[in-house]
Amino acid sequence: MGRASHAQVKFEQREGLCGAGVLFLLPSLLEQGLLKTSDVYSLPSKHYYGLESVVLTLSFMALGRIKNPEQLKQCKPGELGKIIGLDRIPEVRCLRNKIKLLTDQQKATKLNNLLIDHWYAQNHQDASFMYIDGHQRIYYGHKANLPVKYISRQKLCLSATTEYWVNDATGMPVMMVMGQLTEKLQTAIETYIIPQMQQTNLLVSGSPPEQNIPQCTFIFDREAYEPAFFQKLWDTYRIAVITYRKNVKDSWDENSFNTTETKVLEQAVTMSICEQQTELGGYTFREIRRLSKGGHQTAIITTHPTLDIAEIAGRMFGRWIQENFFKYLIHDYDFDKMIQFGIEHIDPEQQVVNPQYRKINNRLKKLREKKQRMEAKFYPLAQLVMEQHIEQIPAIIHKQAEYKEILDKYQQQESELINLRKQYPPKITLKQMPDQTRYNKLKTESKLLINVIKMICYRAESAVASLIAPNLSREKEEKRMVVKQIIANNADLIPDYINKTLTVKLHSLSAPRFNLAAHQVAILLNQTQTIFPGTDLRMIFNTTANSDCEG
After folding, report:
1. Taking all residues of the chain, what is their mean pLDDT, rounded to a whole number?
2. What distance in Å separates the CA atoms of residue 401 and residue 392, rounded to the nearest whole number?
């Protein structure tokens, strides 16, 4: 009747509760700031499910690889509900309504900023190196009019939105901003990423400090390559960059390269590198090159004035840690899924490339490529006439005439396309586009919120994986696999309201060495003295398997 308050969290003794192993990750979720959501969001008190229950549900769904609310129809609502201390989890419509209530508050960025302060200011983690890259999220629907973008992983041009992710030096996600149209990475960095970082303790706003020490170092690929942009980041914000150099045409003397040891993704690597000063676009940069065994020289440029060249090379070649992050989240978290359906309008005064101009420009580009291929066949025939026997000359001249006719046709078509392109301005505002094709965007706030929750889940999963790793002989290959086994495994729940404890006893995993690793993790988790949210129950973690078995 709307007069009740949030449901009270209450546990009962359960044996073999499906998926209750996910509770082994709760201490890490709380350590990563999951309950910071209560500092930002609120839900009406008359609702049965409170904010903590909703956030725990979303987190456990992400960790349990339940990739969208609709997949809850295939789960056991009572079993999952008992994991969060209720009789059942919200059904699909109820959960979607709760997500809408949260997203309507438009506070996902504020939550992200609170988490950044929690991760890096309060816990004193290193935030001096940041990897930045864009991820294309393909749109297969028909209601939204999105710009067409080139999707490298599919080698196709498709409707898509771009998410720009910032990860720290260990590959942990820090923040994500959503592009609206066809922004380049440079624009996203200046328009979205730097202002949001200035809202936290990652960057100091205002005039940059005078000392020759960067506030932060951005590492990205050639997508944001522009020497003037690099210098602007240093002069305006005191931000250094490390990236690959474009259009390298010269080669350095191989005798100038020295063999150096460095670390790439925590792996010791020996490489031949060399440094020189180089001038690009009127600006001077440090250029570091790596010489491969085949003789290829990979060029890196940086504006960092003091960083050791071995570390510069290691940081740049370690950029794949962010690509690995994207691959893992796409495969395991399916983070391209739409959470809330619908579209939003974009500022009509915003400029975009004229679609008609782009279409003609693409036709012109393809025509010129065909023309170049034909010229490559035509011009060598003149030299061939002088070299061949006189009896073969008529056939060559006939072939020349044939090619010349085709070239004249291409030349005429090129002139027509150039004149046609002049009829359209290169850029127009959105309000100048027809209503039927005018660009808009998908709802972004819900995607931001869910991505922030998935950041917390990924960081929590990584933290537990790092606890498991020392107990495995093949830690790199098995640590995340063991975490996923723990999450999906059954467990017993034993509440004790007299002693105020909640015991989570994990069932046996697939191998004795995994049980031993899980038992060692349980010992570490018990030292956290974790209190289950919404209760005064201290969590105790244990395993049912023989902890003395040998791996």
Report:
1. 90
2. 15
Share above pLDDT 70 across residues of the chain, in percent, rounded to a whole number: 95
Residue with tokens 């149209």, as numbered in its chain: 181
Task: Kindly give, in sequence order, each residue whose CB lies less than 8 Å from that of residue 122, ignoring residues fewer than 6 positions away.
Answer: none
State the sign of the Cα–Cα–Cα–Cα dihedral 321, 323, 324, 326.
Answer: positive
Q: H or E element: which one contains 161?
A: strand 156-168
Q: Which helix (H) or strand (E) holds 268?
A: strand 267-280
Instruction: Give residue-wise pLDDT tens across range 404-446.
Output: 889 999 999 999 999 999 999 999 999 999 888 889 888 899 9
Give the largest CA-CA distance in the chain.
109
Band (298; pLDDT cuts 50, 70, 90):
very high
Q: Tokens 């127009």 appear where?
A: 428
Instruction: Determine the distance from the C-alpha atom of residue 190 to the mean position of all C-alpha atoms in its chain, rounded to a whole number.
Output: 18
CB 56 within 8 A of CB 30: no
Question: CB-based burial of residue 8 (10 Å sphere; 0-12 exposed, 13-18 middle, 19+ buried)?
Answer: exposed
Count of beta carbons in the 10 Å neighbourhood of residue 488: 15
Helix (H) or strand (E) holding 352: strand 351-353
The CA-CA-CA angle for residues 412, 413, 416, to 5°, reads: 90
Stretch (H or E) spanning 243: strand 239-244
Distance CA 394, CA 373 (A): 23
| φ, ψ of residue 87 in degrees (nearest 5) | -75, -25
Tokens representing residue 183 in the block: 């922004």
Q: What is the pLDDT of residues 266-291, one digit of tens each?
A: 889 999 999 999 999 999 999 999 99
Counted residue by residue, the chain has a size of 551
Contact 171, 266 (CB under 8 A): no
Q: Which residues contact 57 (CB under 8 A, 6 or more apart)?
A: 49, 80, 84, 89, 90, 95
Q: What would the 3-class secondary structure string for 446-472 be?
A: HHHHHHHHHHHHHHHHHHHHHHHHHHC
Encode 61-120 in three state secondary structure.
HHHCCCCCHHHHHHCCHHHHHHHCCCCCCCCHHHHHHHHHHHHCCCCHHHHHHHHHHHHH
Q: How wide is the angle at C-alpha 159 spanned by C-alphas 156 and 164, nearest 5°?
A: 95
Q: What is the pLDDT of residues 118-170, one digit of tens each?
A: 998 766 677 789 999 999 998 888 888 988 888 887 888 888 999 999 999 99
